[in-house]
Design brief:
2 domains, STM4215-like, two-stranded parallel ribbon, 183 residues, alpha+beta, four-stranded antiparallel β-sheet, 6 helices, 26% strand
Length: 183
């Protein structure tokens, strides 16, 4: 099973911190019933960059399906530390399940819907609105009849990504194996 920290690291990859002369560290703290404490440390030589990075990071967490509460916040000239309490939503659960699908395999909208308790069309909407389309591999989701389906960057891009991962496609249908989730 994919952990919250792995999903948080994907959010962090979405940042181009080297260009901004900044760094980001994440650490998972206590796990409670329905939430996880996360310690975030941002460092930058520019104070305004710290504020912008925190806002952008929180926005990305919300886009991916985290509900975030800021518990503690400490600012200094070159660093920002925050203690966040994050709660997972159904959207996050879908993305975590999708991260279990290895390269070379695909999963159907219906399968993903069954393991997350959502409707297949809801899965389609989540895939279309995926904020990190290559890092969270929504291109690995296909129709139940193994036809390709859509992709936010176009079907051609989806075909290219699947073929690069070793998925065999002929006449618009996947010939490779379908991934089966373990309970």
């Amino acid at each position: 099973m994919v952990s919250e920290l792995e999903v948080l690291k994907i959010c962090a990859k979405g940042f181009n911190l080297k260009q901004r002369n900044a760094s980001l560290k994440l650490k998972i703290g206590l796990r409670k019933n329905d939430c996880v404490e996360v310690f975030v440390t941002l460092k930058s030589k520019r104070f305004k960059t710290l504020q912008a990075l925190l806002n952008e990071f929180l926005r990305d967490l919300k886009l991916i399906g985290f509900q975030v509460l800021i518990k503690d916040l400490a600012l200094s000239k070159n660093a920002l530390s925050a203690k966040l309490e994050i709660h997972a939503s159904k959207k996050l659960e879908v993305f975590k399940k999708l991260l279990e699908v290895p390269k070379g395999f695909v999963v159907s909208y219906k399968q993903l819907a069954i393991v997350t308790g959502l409707h297949p069309r809801t899965i389609g909407v989540l895939m279309r609105n995926n904020p990190f389309p290559v890092l969270i591999p929504c291109h690995r989701v296909v129709h139940e009849d193994k036809s390709i389906g859509g992709y936010s960057s176009g079907v051609g891009k989806k075909l290219m990504l699947l073929r690069e991962e070793g998925v065999v496609i002929k006449h618009g249908k996947v010939l490779s194996q379908i991934w089966l989730f373990q309970n």
